[in-house]
Write a structure and sequence with these properties.
about 425 residues; alpha/beta; Rossmann fold; 3 domains; six-stranded parallel β-sheet; five-stranded parallel β-sheet; 14 strands; about 15% strand
């Protein structure tokens, strides 16, 4: 990690990806369907699944194959995620009110009809991502929720993925990943029906594929490499701060682990603590590369400058480990998820605290928040009038329409006078 005295905004970067190659794969899936899925899965995953759809019965079998302790952990995580999602849904309200005499306007809330949740494969299975995407969709009232995830070495996903899909109420799991999975979800491929919305994290190729299919299908967001920023001072538990930075760094070599403090002495101690913990970390090879590329400790003048640094970088995960952490956290206005106090941690949010761990990266929190029930809800506005009550509005509309040169609009309004 490097010690710095200033911080710059993080530019959005999908990573190393060839957009033309992505476009060719998507076009191939659109044209050839399942034949293209087979070819590209064999090419990239070096296996062809024995079947492309795993239904509820097979998902339940995977659930029953897990040890009780694992089942209990997944159930506890699922219960918290579901409770939080239900609270989000309860906070969203339909309404109608009388905006002018006899003229009523309002909004309705309707869930998306069908959703594909993409769950990355990578080095290890990610059942937490199944829960973090599928459970909010179900709480929103989505009728068809399917999971797309790469096949394992034997052609089928890890049983933890399948079990989590059963627990989250997913209709099916399709063992297909990468660009071809996004193409199948967007355009359909025989037994894999097209959906209305694709959500979930993925590598640079998956993210570019989501960008290219947007419009034909909805997407949640475009995610870059994962990030954490920890605000700390001379009162902080430095082993916890170091552990939280390393937890982020072990994701992959492109992950960003950033610490900001108003104490140079604490900064130097933190660097030593990170090195100490690296010596026993099994994932040290990846974490060390990540820290060498993107790990920084920034020393600033005071607490106000710490909040300013957070608001400049707008990190995916923001932890506040300082004195009066709640007060400092209240000054931070752009983040994916905020973790207040030394007892709170990104790792708890990653698995079981409740809010989804699918969060905006690369400063995107300046215009959007993380995945939640709202991701799967459509806000539809309504208008109704009674007994000619719209006549005053029609007079105004006709006048404005003629200013804009739209005589047809004006005449349609005139008929309501």
């Amino acid at each position: 990690m490097r010690l710095l005295d200033s911080l710059a905004p993080l530019p959005f970067n999908l990573g190393s990806v060839d957009p033309i190659a992505v476009a060719h794969i998507l076009a191939d899936v659109r044209e050839r369907g399942m034949a293209a899925l087979t070819d590209h899965t064999r090419r990239f995953d070096r296996v062809v699944p024995p079947r492309w759809t795993l239904g509820r019965d097979e998902l339940q079998e995977a659930w029953h194959s897990l040890p009780p302790q694992t089942q209990q952990a997944l159930q506890r995580a699922a219960a918290n995620i579901e409770r939080f999602a239900n609270a989000q849904r309860a906070a969203m309200q339909a309404f109608e009110f009388e905006i002018e005499p006899g003229v009523f306007v309002g909004q309705r809330l309707e869930p998306t009809a069908s959703v594909a949740c993409y769950v990355p494969g990578g080095r290890y299975p990610l059942p937490s991502t199944v829960l973090m995407t599928a459970l909010p969709a179900r709480a929103a009232g989505v009728q068809r929720v399917v999971i797309l995830t790469p096949p394992g070495r034997q052609g089928l996903p890890d049983r933890h993925i399948l079990a989590a899909a059963w627990l989250a109420g997913a209709e099916a799991v399709h063992p297909v990943g990468g660009v071809q999975a996004i193409g199948a979800a967007a355009y359909g491929a025989e037994e894999i029906a097209a959906v209305d919305l694709i959500v979930g994290p993925g590598n640079a190729w998956v993210t570019e594929a989501k960008r290219q299919v947007y419009g034909a299908v909805g997407i949640d967001s475009l995610a870059g490499p994962s990030e954490v920023m920890v605000l700390f001072d001379d009162s902080s538990n430095l082993p916890r701060v170091a552990a939280d930075l390393l937890a982020q760094a072990e994701h992959d070599v492109d992950a960003h682990a950033i610490a900001v403090t108003d104490s140079r002495a604490a900064a130097l101690q933190l660097l030593d603590e990170v090195e100490r913990q690296l010596t026993t970390l099994p994932t040290a090879d990846v974490a060390r590369q990540s820290l060498q590329r993107h790990g920084i400790v920034v020393v600033v003048a005071d607490r106000a400058a710490m909040a300013a640094a957070a608001n400049l970088r707008r990190p995916e995960h923001l932890e506040v480990h300082t004195r009066h952490a709640a007060e400092l956290g209240a000054q931070c206005t752009a983040f994916g998820g905020l973790f207040i106090g030394g007892d709170a941690a990104e790792v708890l949010g990653d698995y079981c605290a409740g809010p989804s761990h699918v969060l905006p990266t690369a400063g995107a929190s300046r215009y959007t928040g993380g995945l939640g029930v709202q991701t799967f809800m459509r806000v539809l506005t309504t208008q109704r009038s009674e007994n000619g009550a719209s006549a005053p509005l029609a007079h105004t509309a006709a006048l404005l329409a003629r200013i804009e040169g739209l005589e047809g609009h004006a005449r349609a309004a005139d008929l309501r006078k």
